[in-house]
Amino acid sequence: MLGGVKGFISSGLVLGLVGGAAGAADWPMFRGGPALTGTAEGNIAGNLELRWNFKTGGPVKSSAAIVGGRVFVGSDDGNIYALNLTNGAKVWAFKTGGEVASSPLALEGKVFAGSSDGFLYAIDAVSGSLIWKYQTGDRILGAPNWSGGRGAGALAPSLDDKWKGASSPQPSPPEEERERRREQLGRASAQTPEQWGSGVGGRGAGAAAPAPPDTRPSTLCLLVGSYDFKLHCIDAATGRSNWVYETGNYINGAPAVAEGKVVFGGCDGLLHVLGAADGRQQKEIDAGAYVPGSPAVADGRAYLGQYENEVLAMDLKEGKRAWTFHDRDFPYFSSPAVTRDRVVIGGRDKLVHCLRRADGTKLWSFATRGKVDSSPVVCGDKVIAASDDGRLYLISLEGGKELWSYDLGQPIESSPAAAQGRVVIGCDDGGVYCFGEAK
User: Fold this and answer.
1) What is the pLDDT of residues 51-83, one digit of tens each?
2) In this predicted model, what pLDDT tens digit does every residue of 297-314 receive, in sequence order?
3) What's the structural domain count of the chain?
4) How far is the C-alpha of 245 from the C-alpha of 389, rounded, in Å?
5) One-letter-per-residue 3-state SS of the chain
6) In a domain, 29, yes or no
7) Quick check: is 145 in a domain?
8) Which domain CATH number covers 278?
């Protein structure tokens, strides 16, 4: 495969794919970086035009990564694709055993993505060949994230720290407590698979699987949630498990990595806060309902939406809510974008909401004509958002006014990726669309 694309790849592209960290103008993963804040560097033009459209064989719910002049994205046709950012030409396609709603992570010359077949795949970013695959106990819908051991959490975690291994297991909650949570979340069952399942392996909910201390030099590790109830920490080089943390239900979204912590929610209605280096539980915060999306972490707080119609700011040190926003009785499947002073999130009330980050006060709301499960991105003074009404929008961050829109014709569940002056997004019509500044 590599020989067939050599002439297509510039030396700069090869360096971008094989080198260590992604460039500053890249978008290497879901929400742009490990803290999942959904903010892009630079600015985006206020008037865009369609540059290209690549058709896959199924709906594209996955959100793209953009690194080194390539776009990496999954499709419900079971493939993970590498496309040319300039013209949308297919570079390679890797076939998995199930639908790929998981959003790829492009890092260290590899592309990592989960599949509904239950595997996390590591693929060579240049050739598209399999490096390894790691099996979980059920499907993977959320995106993988990464850390670098004890220094995890920064946008460029140190690779020189020492890996400390996994913690001793924490006690499992009593079965009656698990049952209480399931009953509390039962009215949301129509939005999740019918069977609760029990997962495989592990030491019970809230437990990190024990492992002996390990003083090997730190390597990149991957963090991914699965419908087996578990968050898996995997060595990025070898595909071997470092530790596993079990929760009380499915994990839909991606974990955030910031400030030495791993923060994630799921269908158990809890926000889990773990040590990034060892998987040890630091906090377990009641979210009030199941968390379909992913949290964003900034300055000691996690920001997230949940199924019972609330957007929350959680104080991670105190282990409690800092504020709660409730507007109308519609849930939030979108993940928030967090700037210095604002939180922007989509809702199933067909609105994009902008809140004051300090206290959750609503600053504005923007009306679409469909539910907004797609997660907005903030780029400079603009919000990039998409809706089930089939439209991609540019919205003024300051006042919530529409600046531009484009009708793709089918619902959009994928979230925007913004890099190098381009916006890339998937659509339920099976297309991957790329927009650039209008000429």
Assistant:
1) 999 999 999 999 999 999 999 999 999 999 999
2) 999 999 999 999 999 999
3) 1
4) 38
5) CHHHHHHHCCHHHHHHHHCCCCCCCCECCCCCCCCCCCEECCCCCCCEEEEEEEECCCCCCCCCEEECCEEEEECCCCEEEEEECCCCCEEEEEECCCCCCCCCEEECCEEEEECCCCEEEEEECCCCCEEEEEECCCCCCCCCEEECHHHECECCCCCCCECCCCCCCCCCCCHHHHHHHHHHCHHHHHHCCCCCCCCCCCCCCCEECCCCCCCCECCCEEEEECCCCEEEEEECCCCCEEEEEECCCCCCCCCEEECCEEEEECCCCEEEEEECCCCCEEEEEECCCCCCCCCEEECCEEEEECCCCCEEEEECCCCEEEEEECCCCCCCCCCCEECCCEEEEECCCCEEEEEECCCCCEEEEEECCCCCCCCCEEECCEEEEECCCCEEEEEECCCCCEEEEEECCCCCCCCCEEECCEEEEECCCCEEEEEEECC
6) yes
7) yes
8) 2.40.128.630
Is residue 354, in this structure, part of any structural domain at all?
no
Range of the domain at 331: 2-46+65-187+197-338
pTM given for the model: 0.82
CA distance 104 to 361: 34
Residue 82 in contact with residue 125, Cβ under 8 Å? yes
Do 119 and 132 contact (CB within 8 A), yes or no? no
The CA distances from residue 240 to 132, 222, 233, 237, in Å, are 9, 10, 9, 8
Q: Residue 425 domain-assigned?
A: no
